[in-house]
Design goal:
By secondary structure, the protein is α+β, with helices and mostly antiparallel strands. It has 2 domains: 55 residues, no CATH class; 79 residues, Arc Repressor Mutant, subunit A (Orthogonal Bundle). 33% of the residues lie in helices and 14% in strands. It has 5 helices and 3 strands. The chain has a 3-stranded antiparallel sheet with strand order 1-2-3, covered by helices on one side.
């Protein structure tokens, strides 16, 4: 399910070193974080300002884990996958198979890949830390260049 900007209670923007990020939130937490080409009129809040502060700390190299309530919409399986992504430490990577094991569905590697691709809260829910079992970069909704930048920023060593 794609979150639309107009459906969010709060919208704010962060200019990162790799592009403009749009933060969508409601009263329960962050509903989406994604790269966009242009900024709309913000509808910010104290909460979105906290999200922007944590993003600034992350991109400045002073934060390696986010401490924010999340409110992504998804299936129970997707939410289990996204929770498992949150457990991958900064500077490390995991494979789809690793996450399938973590969510106790070892044969659901493709379903894990699909759930990873549907993650609406990029960077904060670190789907960019998923690589192929051969150690190579695999798809990323925002492009492999951004994925490589994020992994390098976090100090992950790729083969």
């Amino acid at each position: 399910m794609k979150v639309k900007t107009e459906d969010a209670s709060y919208v704010d923007y962060f200019s990162s070193p790799i592009g403009l990020l749009e933060v969508l939130a409601d009263d329960n937490g962050v509903t989406a974080l994604r790269f966009v080409d242009q900024q709309q009129a913000p509808r910010d809040s104290d909460f979105t300002k906290t999200v922007l502060r944590q993003l600034s700390e992350y991109f400045d190299g002073n934060r390696n884990k986010f401490d924010l309530p999340l409110a992504a919409q998804g299936t129970a399986f997707q939410k289990r996958v996204w929770a498992a992504l949150m457990e991958i430490p900064s500077g490390t990577t995991a494979s789809y198979a690793d996450i399938a094991q973590k969510v106790e569905s070892p044969k659901a590697v493709r379903a894990v890949g699909a759930a990873n691709g549907q993650n609406p809260i990029g960077i904060i829910v670190p789907c960019h830390r998923i690589i192929g079992s051969n150690g190579k970069l695999t798809g990323y909704a925002f492009g492999l260049e951004k994925k490589a930048w994020l992994l390098q920023h976090e100090g992950a060593i790729l083969l």
